[in-house]
Design a protein that fits this description.
Layout lengths: L1 E2 L13 H4 L10 H7 L3 E9 L19 H16 L4 E12 L4 E4 L1 H4 L4 E5 L5 E10 L4 E6 L21 E6 L7 E12 L9 E4 L11 E3 L5 E9 L9 E5 H14 L5 E2 L2 E5 L2 H7 L7 E6 L4 H5 L6 E5 L2 E2 L5 H7 L6 E8 L2 E8 L1 E2 H7 L21 E3 L2 E5 L2 H7 L8 E6 L4 H4 L7 E5 L2 E2 L3 H13 L4 E8 L2 E8 L4
Antiparallel strand pairs: 1-12, 2-3, 2-5, 3-4, 4-7, 5-6, 6-7, 8-9, 8-11, 9-10, 10-13, 11-12, 12-13, 14-21, 15-16, 16-17, 17-18, 17-19, 19-20, 22-23, 23-24, 24-25, 25-26, 25-27, 27-28
Keywords: Hydrolase, Periplasm, Protease, Repeat, Serine protease, Signal, Stress response
Family: Belongs to the peptidase S1C family.
EC number: 3.4.21.107
Length: 488
């Protein structure tokens, strides 16, 4: 169970300095470093007003016979309770750290201050200062606050998270369970973790214990630089089991800079939907290795569409950066300057191609609705008798009829072959193909009738291919599925 509540973040298992003795690259004590860093770490307190009942709105009154004296008694009782009861507030605690002492900028997690009516920053000496939310980003779970005070502040710099190696020592300071200024130490357990928290997951994993109130707190290297923002834990019980995650500083730096300059993020946008390249997909495409990001669909009028990128292309390099796995592409694109023309290398129909793409802005595309499905086209009405079903790959396939369009909610403009049955235990079924799916392409060639599908399967077998690639539309959601051949 992944926990990312407003009261969670990472602290690292205490007691580890003893393990450092005898090692030349670790200190015998973290005391000097902790003393230097503690003043820069703050506690975050938020409050949110509980929703109030509208005038005249009462809690549910017990049911009594009409005209009963108890009915009027309970109405009067609840009315007095509502008038006398003060407005309640929900409160929560988190952590943060100062990055600019002169201007009072503080970094924390978005989920720490999300929906808060009031945010208070508490310094090491218990000074309370009301904070302004400069900007926040739910996709990376980061927020930037600003405080105004004559109180002297201490700031800490961002470090290079890419330089951190598995096994490196780290120090964390936070506000677990409201116990401000708690210092703990541990190591980096893993890098580049994807925990399905957002589209840009690239977490540092640590053996740290994460407890309530540490969210938004800094993780330091031994130079006193912030290399991570403690954010989440993996826990079946809600308590720490030693698997914690922090946002890497190299991701945070760019987001924080944008929040500071614009009050919001401004990310690069390519305009494609992508999926992972499995070994079966790589084989069916003739791709030498299962790497890159497979383009499942292209947004009409988006940067990719304008540059000629097509569904079925595999993006292997973007702006000179290798795309070894699917989830790297969104991060690389997001970090690219808006309106920059960049080279993109794609694998298309057995060979490498290069195109130039002018990067768009993700937020502008979201606001304009460009990320929605493309415009519908009017399709000619289906005529004639009901077509005969054909079986292939353990699937029963039929040409699309008006009845099937209605039954499976198939869009009027969509052309292809509809799956009406999936054989139990078939490879296609194991790959997730379902009745109602529409096969749009087979082997990256369009199909219109079941015979097209069986013909392309037979041709692939004759060519000695081990699998064949299907492009499937499921209620407007396009994805590629590689089906091994020679199996039902």
């Amino acid at each position: 169970m992944l926990v990312t509540a407003a009261v969670c973040a990472v602290t690292l298992a205490a007691g580890t300095p003893a393990l450092a003795q005898g090692r030349s690259n670790a200190p015998g004590s973290f005391a000097d470093l902790a003393e230097k860093l503690l003043p820069a770490v703050v506690n975050i307190s938020t409050s949110q007003a509980a929703p109030q009942r509208q005038p005249g709105q009462r809690p549910e009154v017990p049911q009594f016979p009409p005209g009963s004296p108890f009915e009027e008694f309970f109405r009067d009782f609840f009315d007095r309770q509502q008038q006398d009861q003060p407005q309640r507030k929900a409160t929560s605690l988190g952590s943060g750290f100062v990055i600019d002492a002169k201007n009072g900028y503080v970094v924390t997690n978005n989920h720490v201050i999300q929906d808060a009516d009031e945010v208070t920053v508490i310094l090491q000496d218990d000074t309370n200062i009301k904070a302004e939310v400069v900007g926040k980003d739910s996709k990376t779970d980061l927020a930037l606050l600003k405080i105004k005070t004559n109180h002297p502040l201490v700031a800490v710099p961002f470090g290079d998270s890419d330089a951190m190696r598995v096994g490196d020592w780290v120090l964390a300071i936070g506000n677990p369970f409201g116990l401000g200024g708690s210092v703990t130490a541990g190591i980096i357990s893993a890098r580049q973790r994807d925990i399905n928290a957002g589209p840009y997951d690239d977490f540092l994993q640590t053996d740290a214990s994460i407890n309530r109130g540490n969210s938004g707190g800094p993780m330091f290297n031994l130079n006193g630089e912030v290399i991570g923002i403690n954010t989440a834990i993996f826990s079946p019980s809600g308590g720490s089991v030693g698997i914690g995650f922090a946002i890497p500083s190299n991701l945070a730096k760019q987001v924080v800079a944008q929040l500071r300059d614009y009050g919001k993020t401004r990310r690069g946008w390519l305009g494609v939907r992508i999926q992972a390249v499995t070994p079966e997909i790589a084989e069916s495409l003739g791709l030498p290795a299962h790497k890159g990001a497979l383009v499942a669909s292209v947004t009409p009028d988006g940067p990719a569409a304008k540059s000629g990128i097509q569904a079925g292309d595999v993006v292997t390099k973007f702006d000179g950066k290798e795309i070894n796995e699917m989830r790297r592409l969104p991060r690389v694109v997001a970090e690219t300057a808006i309106d920059k023309a960049v080279p993109v290398e794609v694998w298309r129909k057995g060979k490498t191609m290069n195109v130039q793409v002018k990067v768009g802005e993700l937020e502008a595309a979201e606001e304009s609705g460009l990320l929605a499905a493309g415009p519908e086209e009017r399709a000619p009405k289906d005529k004639g008798p009901a077509p005969k079903a054909t079986e292939a790959l353990g699937l029963k396939l039929t040409a699309i009829t008006p009845e099937l369009r209605q039954q499976y909610e198939i869009k009027p403009e969509l052309k292809g072959v509809v799956v009406t049955e999936v054989q139990s235990g078939s490879t296609a079924g194991e790959k997730g193909v379902r009745p109602g799916d529409v096969i749009v392409e087979v082997g990256q060639e369009e199909v219109r009738k079941p015979e097209d599908v069986t013909g392309k399967i037979q041709k692939a077998k004759e060519q000695g291919k081990k699998s064949i690639l299907l492009l499937i539309d499921r209620k407007g959601d396009l994805r590629f599925v590689a089906i091994p051949l020679g199996q039902g």
